[in-house]
Amino acid sequence: MMRGGADPEAAQEIAQEALIMVWRKAASFDARRASAATWIYTIARNKRIDLLRRAARPLSEDDWLTVYAADEADADQSVLAGQTYMRMKELMEGLSPDQRIVLHKAFFEDKTHTAIAAELALPLGTVKSRIRLALSKLREAMEREEKER
Amino acid sequence: MSHLAPDELLLDYATGVLPEGPALAVALHVALEPEARRTVRRLRGLAGALLEDEAGEAVLGDAALERALARLDDAPVEPRAETAMRPGFDWAPAPLRPYLAGKSWQRGFGGFDEMRLDLHGDRHLVSLLRLEPGQGLPRHRHAAGEYTVVLQGGYTDNTGNYVAGDFAVGPDGEHKPIADPGEPCIALIVLEKPIVLTGLWSRLLNPLLRRGWM
Known about the structure:
Shape of chain A: flat
Mean pLDDT of chain A: 68
CATH superfamily of chain B: Jelly Rolls
CATH architecture of chain B: Sandwich
Number of domains of chain A: 2
Number of strands of chain B: 11
Low-confidence stretches of chain B: none
Distance between the termini of chain A: 35 Å
Largest sheet of chain B: 6 strands, antiparallel
CATH class of chain B: Mainly Beta
Helix content of chain A: 55-70%
Strand order of the largest sheet of chain B: 1-2-3-10-5-8
Oligomer: heterodimer
Low-confidence stretches of chain A: 54-82
Order of helices and strands of chain A: HHHHHHHH
């Protein structure tokens, strides 16, 4: 949160708000669909956006529910829940440093792919292709794992 | 073969950095298209796993934790959120429903129905369009980015055939979408800037368009 541009005080406020939200929304958490860490990441991310940029956002903290409640039959619905931290780390380590840094900036510094390109002084097309390559590697790895189950 | 939103847009959506208009377009695509949903879920799963890695830095100080825990007593536990569906709007996925309150179809100059949606501070133009089967939009090109999500029926232009759930970016050049046979085609359009009509007669309409009259 702090790396995303929040000062320490705001980060504490966000963390508090997120904790309260986790408490209030606990009834909606479904362990078959996502790990607790994923769920909490999503709530904290939405809280941060709500606090730092109150207006311009169509989907409140409930968009997590929208995304996750819509389908029942996806093959991978239990996979992420069972995916361990080590497994995810392995997947990340399978990426090139270039691909990793782009994903890291997206996840933890709340930057758009356009902002990432500007910061790294790279053409937009380069950043797009790094994201696409990284995602296709992750997709492959996850699909392999899904088939093995 | 379905038309998916590009990965970089799904990533921006998953991390919550898109402005409201594009975020709404991707949210509807994700609600209708299982493959896009899987990608967003995987990205958030990855972010969650990496978050555990980052958790070394204590953000919540002892005093703040105390305060947060104290506030928990006052926080009501909410039931699962449900968004009401308006009769006649059964084609609208959940993320769209809050935007439809008090809205109705308006017949535009081009003879097709439009419903303009209000955003909260984002300057993108967001509209729903409804075309009867076989009906086309005037030929036009885009001054800037355009996102289209098909919600019902389908349309065809020089870049392909798009059906419910499909996502289109751009295109760079001119295009003239025509609604497929069957049911009316309903699509959400997100524009960064107004489109420019390029047909001879419809060019006369450009000044109206720029003023937001169409």
